[in-house]
Amino acid sequence: MSSMHLVFTLYSFFFLATASVSFSVAFLAWRRRLIKSAVELAYLMIAAGIGAFWLIFETAAPTVTEKIFLSKLEFIGGIATPVLYLIFVLRFTGKDKFLSAKHILVLFIVPAITLMLTLTNESHNLIWSGFSAISEKTNLMEYYHGIGFWIGYIAYTYLMLAIAIILLINFIIHQNNPFRSQGIILFIGGFCPWIVSFIYLTGNNPVTGLDITPVSIILSGILAAFAIFKIRLLDLVPVAREKLVETLPDGILVLDGLNRIQDINGAAISFLGISNKNIIGLPAQSSGALVSKLLNAVIDLDSTDKTEEIQNNNNEIKTFRILKHTIKNQIGSRLVIIRDITDQVAWQNEIQAGEERYRHLFSMFRLMADNTEDFLWAKDINNRFTFVNKTMCDRMLMAENVNEPIGKTDIFFAKRERERHSENPDWHTFGEIYADTDTITLGEGKPQQFDEFGNIQGKFLFLDVHKAPIWNELGNLIGVVGTGRDVTHTKQLENEKSNVLELLRKSEVDLQRINADKDKFFSIIAHDLKNPFNVFLGFTIMMTDDLPNMKLSEIQKMAFSLRKSATNLYQLLENLLEWSMMQRGITRYDPKTFSLNPKIKESLQLVLDSANKKGIEFSCTISEDIIVYADENMLKSTIRNLATNAVKFTPKGGQISIVAKPGNGSGVEISISDSGIGMNKDLLDNLFQLDEYTSRKGTDGEPSTGLGLLLCKDFVEKHGGEIWAESEKGKGSVFHFNLPNHSKKV
Question: In the predicted model, what is the mean pLDDT of residues 209-235?
């Protein structure tokens, strides 16, 4: 370039002016770069200015080689302008979703390829296929274009411009003023490149070889500059708007009749959960708002104000007041104010909750105070009542209701009652007795306790009175609070020692009866233990004295008897141990829910052996779906004892059956019946009684103590059930008991 002998012509100065205008518009737009689409307009004007700048030198270059070199530099700016123009229009019309880095990169692929072809044209001639001689008159030369120019530059430029024009037409149709006026100006400017390019390509250029296509972009920029100065494109909102609206805590939103966003401040964007700040001109529904419930309330055409509780995108519950104002001369347009009143509502709720708690606490205190037999009152520093309960009102002051004493002194009521009962010199009121002690408490400023008694209102009363001073938050004495309890009856009991002695004597008698019952029980147990031990003793003597002379069959018979006695003795001791543990509270009660049938079968394993030896037919009819809620060990012990008794008192060849069915109401009723010897009425009535002797031998001489039935009774009652028997002598017996089938308190 330094060796060039440039010949600046009129056309050089034309492009100098063009570049100057382009850079000036870019400067103006950049100064307003915080406004929507200003940055994109600045980039467009810079690119157009770069193209015009190199054309200054291309028109002044004296040789073909120099002109080609400078034309390549001009392409750097010129080839980017159609894409930048489309990007500007996309931003202006609110199509920000198409302006991601990925989309922009795709738009620049064809220009990048075209630029590479331009820089390497000498190798393929796809951009310029040839050149004319330089005109001596204009110092210009004509460029002959190859297929790469028509496709990569012209066709692609027209495509970009066509898309931009379509977007502007759609924008103009759907916009109100002032946006519509802005769109019309940009639409007119968008036709400049079309017109100029058409003139250049059809050979109707006023000057041969003069490429005025970059000038068309400059013309579009000039129109944009006109909009900046005349109708304030990019600067619709005054500076005061930025200072005021953007600093308001309230969300401000302007919508047109089609719910398109005309203006919005940062607070509204935050409230609605919008991440994309370039949403001017977009329908509110397409703004990407995450807080959909708030958005629906905002765009609702109902003009009335409303309050909404809404969960925002941080899962916080917020309360918003939404205010709407119509905009004059703009049908359907409205100003929406979104006000976060969460703290205000919480504060109001806290006040209401506090008042409600106070009312609740006072009502509870009043309820408790009016339902106690104690006397409760409070007074101010001048001995005037500030509170009395119903007992105080009715029994002491004889007032009409609890409100009548408020603001009055006790002397007032004492005087009134004395006048009503002037004929009875023994009539005294409570006020006459305790008034002085209130004064003492107020004077000393510390809690007091008094025993007050006398003939009050015609009867003797003994009162335990407690009084305490009341202090305010400043430490000043403001009153006294008092309670009085009628302890007349307690005092009387203290003087009636004979009644206490009578109670002690009665307790002693009951204790003696209980001890007698236990003695009788132990006597029964001792008697029943005696027989098995006698059998053991007799057999051991026989075995000691005569074992060498005994036959094997005799020894086996003796061993069988010993085993039988040992079994009976073990069963007796086992029942005794379980009953003893139950009486002392040692037995653990651990109920669970389970199926009844398997547990019954487990309980009968030992019993069935005895039944088979006596040839007794044993049946168990229990459905598999019957469920009980019981302690498993207690249930098994109960079944085992009742079944053992049935076998014991049923002759050979008899029958025993166990059935279970739903009981009356809830629960399960279990019955064990036998075809045994039965019981008479006296024996039946004394079953389950500790102090009655009900033991008798079985049909094969089996011993019985009756302890097993006592154990069964305790176990069943532990479950909250009951046990009973039905029997006639010679006709067998049926023992019934019931158990719960679900958890319940027993």
Answer: 62
CA dist., res. 221 & res. 25, Å (int): 7
Pick from 143, 111, 141, 112: nearest CA to 129: 143
Q: Tokens 């149709």 belong to which residue?
A: 173
Q: What single string gives the DSSP state of each residue in 513-547?
A: HHHHHHHHHHHHHHHHHHHHHHHHHHHHHHHHHHG
H-run or E-run covering 558: helix 552-583
pLDDT > 90: percent of the chain? 10
Q: What is the arithmetic mean of pLDDT over 48-59? A: 87
| pTM across the whole model | 0.39
Is residue 616 within 8 A of residue 656, CB to CB? The reply is yes
Using DSSP bridges, classify how beta strands 617-621 and 655-662 pair: parallel, antiparallel or unpaired.
parallel
At 305, is the secondary structure helix, strand, or coil? coil
In this prediction, residues 507-528 reach a mean pLDDT of: 62
Distance CA 486, CA 246 (A): 72
- Per-residue pLDDT, averaged over 195-216, amounts to 68
For residue 555, name the pLDDT band (cuts at 50, 70, 90).
confident
Give the Cα separation of 336 and 289 in Å (integer): 16
Q: Give dist(CA 672, CA 286) in Å, integer.
A: 80
Give the Cα separation of 77 and 488 in Å (integer): 111
Number of residues written out for the chain: 746
Could you tell me which residues are beta bridge partners of residue 130?
Answer: 144
Structure confidence at residue 391 as a pLDDT band (50, 70, 90): confident
Q: Give pLDDT, residue 459.
A: 64
Q: Which residues pair with 734 in a beta bridge?
A: 673, 726
733-739 and 128-131 strand pairing: unpaired
**pLDDT (0 to 100) of residue 583:** 57
Q: For residue range 140-151, what is the model confidence (pLDDT) as tens digits?
A: 888 888 999 889
| Tokens 């509502």 belong to residue | 345
Q: Is residue 403 a contact partner of residue 366, using CB atoms and an 8 Å limit? A: no
Q: Kindly state the DSSP code that residue 742 receives in the 8-state scheme.
A: S
Q: State the average pLDDT over residues 446-471.
A: 71
Residue the block writes with tokens 């703004």: 287
Where residue 292 falls (left for φ over 0; alpha for ψ -120 to 50; beta otherwise) is alpha
CA-CA distance, 152 to 158, in Å (whole number)? 10
**Contact at 8 Å (CB) between 682 and 701?**
no
Distance of CA 101 to the CA centre of its chain: 41
Residue 61's alpha-carbon distances to 5, 27, 128, in angstroms, are 7, 29, 18
Run of H or E residues at 340: strand 334-340
Instruction: Provide the 3-class DSSP secondary structure of residue 660.
Output: strand
Q: For residue 725, what are the contacts with CB-CB under 8 A and spacing of at least 6?
A: 679, 684, 687, 733, 734, 735, 736
How much is the average pLDDT of 327-340? 78
Over residues 654-673, the mean pLDDT reads 88
Q: Do the Cβ atoms of 380 and 386 come closer than 8 Å? A: yes
No. of H helices and E strands in the chain? 25, 19
* Contact predicate 550/541, CB 8 Å: no
Q: Cα–Cα distance between 520 and 133 in angstroms, integer?
A: 147
H/E element holding 471?
strand 459-471
d(CA 363, CA 338): 40
- For the chain, domains (ranges, CATH) are 10-230 (1.20.1070.10), 240-340 (3.30.450.20), 372-494 (3.30.450.20), 588-739 (3.30.565.10)
Q: What is the DSSP string of 261-298?
A: EEEE-HHHHHHHT---S--TTSBGGGS--S-HHHHHHH
Closest CA to 701 of 571, 536, 542, 532: 532
Q: Between 151 and 177, name the one with better pLDDT.
A: 151
Rounded Cα distance between 245 and 264, Å, is 9
Dmax (CA) for the chain in angstroms is: 164
Kindly report, residue by residue over 698-719, the tens digit of the pLDDT. Answer: 677 666 666 678 778 888 888 8
